Amino acid sequence: MGKSIIFRLLTVTAIASIVLVYFSPIWWVSLKAPNYPPEAFPDGVRIHFHVDGVFNGCQKRESEEIHEEEALNCVHEMDTINHYVGMYPIASGGPIERTLSQFLFAFMIVMLVAFMMSGRKFQATTLTVGFSIIVVWAYITLFTPGGVTWMSEGYQQVLQTSMDMEREEFQDWSGFHAMQKNYQDTLGMYFRDTVKIQKRADILTIAAYVVIGLLIASMLIFIIGILWKNRLFYWLLVIIPILLPAFFVLEYAGWLWWFGHNLNEMGAFTLKPFMPTVFGDGKVAQFTTHSYPHYGFGLMMLSLVLLLLASLLRRKQLWEANKD
Predict the structure, then answer these.
(1) Angle (nearest 5°) at CA 100 between 14 and 28
(2) Angle at CA 150, nearest 5°, toward 237 and 70?
(3) Which domain holds residue 318?
(4) Which of 44, 135, 283, 305 has the fewest C-beta atoms lying within 10 Å of its C-beta?
(5) What is the distance between the alpha carbons of residues 258 and 207, in angstroms, rounded to a whole number?
(6) pLDDT band at 4 (very low <50, low <70, confident <90, very high)
(7) What integer best gives the mean pLDDT of the chain?
(8) Domain count, the chain
């Protein structure tokens, strides 16, 4: 089998892994304490981080002593625990990243499809068509009434749960309005400081427009760079998706820092700013914390390995072609 076919098969498999990543739990966090006994909470108060939201990690319990119609909502339980020390609800973290996640993943997939193409014209055409579809999709989703229904199922589920609403109540919202409304609502869930909330909501709006602008500008730069036959841009098509695990860990750690260093003074207990545990076990007050990768992160690492192998094969193929 030729190098061209192998490197394309590796890239296609990596794309499939990245698609699965979007629908998979990437990281899990659990809190354990004496008042949450293992008989009732075998995994502690557990939550799962996805790219489009944070989901309940607690399972429904079935035993002779305990019967539940549905699993305890451990996202709400953790928010309740955290608010005593002044931490904001989990849904207030990463509002822009969660809202734009489906477009960012589509952005990477288009780049990888272009990476598989031979010839600058085919690569530029793939990028132009793919990016145009993303821009139209993003406009309809973010800025038209009812656009929120074009968001991922997971995003809508988190929106419904965090705002305690029925789907029908926000079906006519735009995705951008849903992001703003959800951010304001979660910030004010326990700490109703309207001035501070409005200030942060205004910053969020500006930051969201800046990120969207940068994303569109990046698309144009990539297309121009490929047409100019700049080799750097060609290799960036695969380098950026390769760095997905690093992007996630940095993003995750950054938001943990924000939560631990932006404690609201209205909390019942005073706690010095702290850095929550990114990886491993830690302790905050009487709670033991556990923070570890889930299988979605394994899929990220799989895509990294596949793309590294595809890149090496592609590099060797191009070197041999130039040598001949």
Answers:
(1) 65
(2) 110
(3) 3-323
(4) 283
(5) 16
(6) confident
(7) 91
(8) 1
